[in-house]
């Protein structure tokens, strides 16, 4: 079966669902951008006060919190944890870069 063989009502429903997915993807990207703006500020604050880029205790609390949120949202908690671990790794990388920049430390 080719896409041209799909019933028009099925095609319309696919288009509607895909449009919703596209909107959600856009919202996710914008939310991640906002999150990274905040974590960049945290990175600058940490650098200015000679704090380490990583905070394992905070990260563990965040993972536990996100797993609970995922469960209540009917999302696989293991997937949510993998996603947050990926984001945390990127945040730490940013914090390390900020700490290595001249002028970030008093």
UniProtKB/TrEMBL annotation:
PROSITE patterns documented for this protein: CHORISMATE_MUT_2
UniProt key word Metal-binding: no
Family annotation (Pfam families): CM_2
EC number(s) reported in the record: 5.4.99.5
Annotated keywords: Isomerase
Taxonomy, superkingdom: Bacteria
Record protein name field: Chorismate mutase
Species: Streptomyces kurssanovii
